[in-house]
Amino acid sequence: MSLEALIEAIHASPVRLSLCICGAGAGAVARLTQVAECSRTLLEADVLYHRASTRIALDGLPKHLVSIEAARRLAQHAFNVSRTVATAEARVKTPSKEKAHQRGSYLFGIGATSAVKTSRARRSGDQVFVSVWGGAVLPHTFDAHALEQDTMEEAVGGVFDYHMHMPDSLDRAGQDKQVELMVLHAIADTVARTSRAGPTSLLHSLLPVSSKGSTSTSMDGAAAEKPTRLCAVPALSGPHRISLDTAHEMAEAIQAVLSYHPAPGKPEDVCVLWNRYGELRWAEHLPYDGEWNELEVSTPTEAHSSAPATVEAMRPLRLLYPGSFNPLHYGHTELVQAAIRVLRQQPSYQHDPYVPVQVTYEIAVKVVDKGAIACRDLQRRVAQFLERGERVAVTNATLFISKASLFPGHGFLIGIDTAVRVVDPQYYSTSTDPHEAEAAMVAALQRDIGDRGCYFVVGGRQMSDTTGWQDLTTLSIPAAIRHLFVGISDEEFRVDISSTELRAKKRARLHPHPEAHSNM
To answer: How far is residue 325's CA from residue 307's CA, in Å, rounded to a whole number?
Structure first.
């Protein structure tokens, strides 16, 4: 059977998808577009070839670019693109509060990453990973920020993973062709699972002839020579369950942090994170897990030393901004911008004022002296950031030691009131000798914060009518740990407002005092 017939069957199905291909395999896009009615299937296609392109697309780099975890992240991003495009289309084609159109009831993202022949030395073999992320969607799937999951049916989907080694006998062009066919096979296999738009023999026509019906993944020389067949049967795993709508996905992830109790040998601290595209990262929870390249994080020594900048030093700056954000207001966002300006003025970055900065807002599920925050309340706070395209994490980390474990290499953006507690020796030692207590504090901060590549960026604050404005210049810090603190002056940032004041003003608007209307 011809490849054109296969693609016609794909276009005739209700499956709609986006592609995110890292490296080889871009020919799959051309194959799809060369057959009529491609717009029925393909929503968007992205080909990432440079590391910087991948970092931008995924809002970070996986530890290993050629891995099943990287393929999943690419597929997740592609699904998010599909949902965004379908959402825009649904708003145009359907009246408000009316059921979304039936066309495109299956949405997917396809991610592919591969290692093919190259002139550079490489430890891994030639191989390709493809992931498919998605499933049957429901009308509310198109509302990216809906929070009322209790009244909505959950749209459940799955993730399928494909993996294949490529024989050394193939040249670079031949391997690229195999990646292309692998992507097309994953799409056809998805059509076969969901809609059966064509006979199985057609939808599986890219498999090697001699291996049909076999679960073997061994290479087949004869099949490798055929330009329109895979050289082996790909290894298939899955499905891994996912929620296709934001509300259920968010609630499930947050509840997992709220109810977390570490098993023996498991970490004490956990975190779920949404990147700036609203894509969930969830450690040790398939298919959302995966290691990220923390080696690209700058360290306080590199960022704040007076030594000449080097290539190694010019790595992205990463900030973690802990807070309750109830609500998020302009004081928070202005403090972030001030911190970025200050860090870019440090000696190592003065010749590159546009060094990339990644900011993650962090909400701890339990607040010291206040107890746990309700899941629905946390959802509302997280949604503030997703609507703005900001990174946000929900953690169980109440101490900075725990935050440093979860976010090594990050600068912690804090206020002066918090900084006062950070350098208070009573939190580090029970000794009545002030010198011993201070030594314990210095050792703890260097070991638990500095040695993990973390540091503090401190903003000023109007403390009280008597104390007035305070910033890092008013705080006494031992010389041994002074390098762990970067101050933001009042010239860079000064906003005399708090979330508490904003909540009080909102309550006053909603519930005005009855005496205010007594003379009307």
So the answer is: 37
The pLDDT confidence band at residue 59, using thresholds 50, 70 and 90, is very high
With a CB cutoff of 8 Å and minimum separation 6, the contacts of 205 are: 1, 6, 188
Residue in 83, 75, 90, 97 with CA at minimum distance from that of residue 22: 75
The answer as to whether 519 is a domain residue is no
* pLDDT band of 215, cuts 50, 70, 90: very low
Q: Are residues 78 and 146 in the same domain?
A: yes
Total structural domains within the chain: 2
Distance of CA 298 to the CA centre of its chain: 19
Contact predicate 279/77, CB 8 Å: yes
Task: Give yes or no for a contact between 359 and 373, defined as CB atoms under 8 angstroms apart.
Answer: no
| Sheet strands (E) in 5-126 | 15-22, 42-48, 106-115
Tell me the three state secondary structure of residue 102. coil
pLDDT tens profile 442-486? 999 999 999 999 999 999 988 776 777 889 999 999 999 999 999
**What pLDDT digit, counting tens, does each position of 403-421 carry?**
999 999 999 999 999 999 9
Q: Tell me the residue type at 324.
A: S
> What are the residues whose beta carbons fall under 8 Å from the beta carbon of 348, sequence distance 6 or more?
302, 303, 304, 305, 307, 309, 313, 314
DSSP 33-51: HTSTTGGGTEEEEEEE-SH
CATH number, residue 236 = 3.90.950.20
Same-domain status, 289 and 417: yes
Structural domain boundaries, residue 62: 3-89+104-209+229-243
With respect to residue 82, please indicate whether it lies within any of the assigned structural domains.
Answer: yes
Q: How confident is the model at residue 309 (pLDDT cuts 50, 70, 90)?
A: very low
- For residue 514, CA distances in Å to 383, 501, 505, 517 come to 34, 21, 16, 6
In tens, the pLDDT along 253-269 reads 999 999 999 999 999 99
pTM for this model (two decimals): 0.87
